[in-house]
């Protein structure tokens, strides 16, 4: 069905970056999560099988990976922005997201106002990085970019950095397992996740949007939301 990514028509190649709980992460060698369930639904609809291609988030969010034909679609908790809409084909929104400020337990940092002189970890190429850069001067912190959320959690636990700004839902679930970290402030950025395809692949874009419409209507999306996010 798709012109690039895998040459094999029976395969839907999906670019992602893990761990990004609860949207994509590995469990017993399998890629699972909210995004992965939705990608499996898309693949079923297209009579294809998902093949995950793990790459840096940066190469996904810049559009570089998709436009180089590395994969058919990107599923990466990717927030819809004007820049990304210009670089890639972006689907309708399927999840409303915000940012969060996370610090090691016992830190003196309680809000953004306490970040003067602190090293703030962000994920390279993320909206959290853009937010952190935009506000660095005002709050007087230094932004340090990492490749993955796993690296950020390790740096925070090791005390290499003093804080992090990244997606709220991911941090809420990460701090449950990465002990010693506290979420101190929600930063309402009102973002919306979308799936991304190659810029001219309107055929696949229509299929993703139709898959989402069907899932919103028949209750499947609500079930998945409950399964992965809760409430
Ligand atoms: N939602 C954020 C963004 O699109 C972060 C996504 C991620 O790190 N996987 O930039």
TrEMBL record:
Keywords, comma-separated and alphabetical: Signal
Predominant location: other
Solute-binding protein family 3/N-terminal domain segment(s): 11-231
Ranges where the Ionotropic glutamate receptor C-terminal domain occurs: 11-231
Keyword Transport on entry: no
Family annotation (Pfam families): SBP_bac_3
Compartment(s) of residence: Cell envelope
Protein family (similarity comment): Belongs to the bacterial solute-binding protein 3 family.
The protein, known as: Transporter substrate-binding domain-containing protein
Organism: Glycomyces mayteni
